[in-house]
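Ticket #4471: structure output looks truncated?

Reporter: J.K.
Steps to reproduce: submitted the chain below (388 residues) through the standard prediction queue, then opened the result file.
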Amino acid sequence: MGRINSLKRVVCGVSGGVDSSVTALLLKRKGYDVIGAFMKNWDGKDELGACQADKDAEDAEQTCKALSIPFVEVNFVKEYWNHVFENLLQDYQTGLTPNPDILCNYHIKFDLFSDYAKEKLGADFVATGHYARSSLRMDSCDSEFENTKLLTAHDSFKDQTFFLSHIKQSSLRKTFFPIGHLLKSQVRKLASDNNLNHVANRPDSTGICFIGRRNFQDFICEYIPDNPGPFVDVDTGKEVGRHQGIHMWTVGQRCRIGGCLQPYFVASKQPETRTIFVASGTNHPALYSNVFVTDTPHWICSTPKDLLEKGTFDCYFRFQHTKPLTAAQIAFRQSGLIVTLKQPLRALTPGQYAVFYSGQECLGCARITQNMDNAQNVQKIDICSSTA
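Returned output as attached by the reporter:
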């Protein structure tokens, strides 16, 4: 424990869970001047009339008391609504499927919160309980002029670099991830061994925080009015049912359409006509693709050298946190990328983020704008319909 650490202030985001609690514990052990900060990003009650954020704040404050560190609560409800939730609603209305966790990390936790910690609380660094690592050493304070790499966590099952893939370099070089080298079981044991029993066995949070246990379609209908349209069979071009709005459905989702031999699944959506194209059977070819297009990529450190010099770059990617990595080749396409996969994947979804990896490094991400195979299927239907 060096003297330099005792002079550095770290503001630790405490959420009321075991991961952020142990993060604060480890920082204090390192000799940092630690402040626990709880972020309130959503102001509402769940389907049972309870506000989970209030309970989370109580647990976070109890953690800070147990560790004898200051506790503050920061309200970002307005900013979350403006920067994350309104964008989410707009995306759903235009047929996209957004990722609010990536947006929250980009706009709130590693932007507004980082700025608040520095400007209002005098932080030299911030820290979170994410399962991730970086090339920034916790015992080093020389990060001003070094590009910091985002690295996968030791616990591959809990790794959260997917959600951090849009982080700015300026934020990453001022952020610690103290539990990135630990397994979840080790984190829980540290909590139990250090008088943090109120969080030691607390269940992991899952799903989108502001939805709670509610059905997604019931939730989204509170904010977006019905806008009915047809379900159209991707093979025949014929209408096979009706839906109440494209915002209620995502690519790959099973549809509730009666009177068919096999269940239908969403293959693609056409916002301008409110049409949802559906495929019969969970393994229908229209649900798979090995080529997609993205918008402008975000590279955490820099654009890969091979991409700049050779025009293509071989790496690995995923578009869902829980899915295994898939080999891919990326190339420039106008202002974005075209990504070609070695093997087709099911339900590549516009609006989701393609996150790129090379070895243990998370390179960055790009938002999927078009699934090329599905776009071609829809085009064929349009041609058939116009010549019928």
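Triage note (M.O.): checked the attachment and the full token line is present. The longest strand covers residues 336-346.
Status: closed, working as intended.
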